[in-house]
Amino acid sequence: MGTRFKICCIKSEAEAALAISYGAHAVGLVGRMPSGPGPISDERIMEIAKTVPPAVSTFMLTSETSVKDIINHHKRTLTSTIQIVDAISSGTYTDLREALPAIKIVQVIHVIDERSVEEAVEKSELVDAILLDSGNPLLKIKQLGGTGRVHDWKISRKIREQSRCPVFLAGGLTPENVRQAIDEVNPFAVDVCSGVRTDGKLDEKKLEIFVNNINRI
Fold first, then answer.
1. What DSSP element (H or E) covers 96?
2. How high is the mean pLDDT of the chain?
3. Contact by Cβ (8 Å): 40, 29
4. What is the rounded CA–CA span in Å between residue 72 and residue 95?
């Protein structure tokens, strides 16, 4: 099987259906964030997730950092996967698994420098997948995704080689660079938001080129 892909920042049932029609293995539904594009209400996340076929994963992106709050956020959306975009501040992954045993856990690692490798490898033993993005949680207003920026794929490659779980690659991917990203990092899956959008809306032509370039050998 080739590289899987996730289309993030889905805002409507129609966008979800379009992504799935092009073979998306997962769709991302963004909850409240301190910055970045794509947040929708928890009610809308649940409504859209209900329309997605079981074979396609639904990712709820949460900026909550307490496991208790993450659990409550999931209960308002009922997606198949939780994507944690910041570091957990209270509680543990074990607590999260015990509360939601059927739900997959994906931890975002914001690739900033070589120190990100150690963080990613450590977290990879505790979750179902890690997702490498280009945010910066250290800023006064945290950037937790949707930046449209590419990070250092050499660091991503190191993480992918050492990770104990599947690795998703995000951050500034476009139809033009996704093939190079796959060739350099060889991730389990790629993840795109702004790179397949025009004026904030999912662009079918960009999506088609993106998918064709993923599948081009």
1. helix 93-99
2. 91
3. yes
4. 13
- Output the domain CATH number for residue 191: 3.20.20.70
Residue for token digits 């307490």?
66
Rounded CA separation 25/2 (Å): 11
Structure tokens at 100: 């939601």
- Domain ranges, residue 146: 4-215
User: Of 59, 62, 57, 66, which Cα lies nearest the Cα of 29?
Assistant: 59
Q: What's this model's pTM, rounded to 2 decimal places?
A: 0.92
Q: What is the largest CA-CA distance in the chain?
A: 44
The per-residue pLDDT for range 69-92, each reduced to its tens digit, is: 999 999 999 999 999 998 999 999
Give 118-122's long-range contacts (Cβ < 8 A, gap of 24+): 120/159, 120/162, 120/163, 121/159, 121/162, 121/163, 121/164
| Total number of domains in the chain | 1
